[in-house]
Design a protein that fits this description.
It is built from three helices and two strands; from the N terminus they run αβαβα. The chain is mainly α. Helix 2 links the parallel strand 1 and strand 2. Helix 1 packs across helix 2. The chain has a two-stranded parallel ribbon with strand order 1-2. The longest helix has 22 residues. The protein is 48% helix and 11% strand.
Length: 73
């Protein structure tokens, strides 16, 4: 929501990712976030997604950088 501060929104997403990471650790799986273009998408600019994922082990969470979506305006 671009009408609200971004960082608290990213922090809320990070809490959700943390729960997925715990499940992935338990089951030996990896969460992959697929990037999308657009102002309403986390990851449409890399730094917002990196700020969410950087503290987690990439064995359990990562992202699929879709260059086609990133080229879409």
């Amino acid at each position: 929501d671009l009408s609200k501060p971004i960082q608290p929104q990213l922090d809320a997403i990070k809490l959700k990712v943390e729960k997925f990471v715990a499940l992935n650790q338990k089951h030996g799986t990896t969460l992959i976030y697929h990037t999308r273009a657009g102002a309403n998408s986390v990851g449409s600019v890399v730094w917002d997604l990196l700020s969410v994922l950087k503290e987690f082990d990439p064995k359990y969470v990562g992202f699929h950088w879709d260059t086609g979506h990133m080229a879409t305006t």
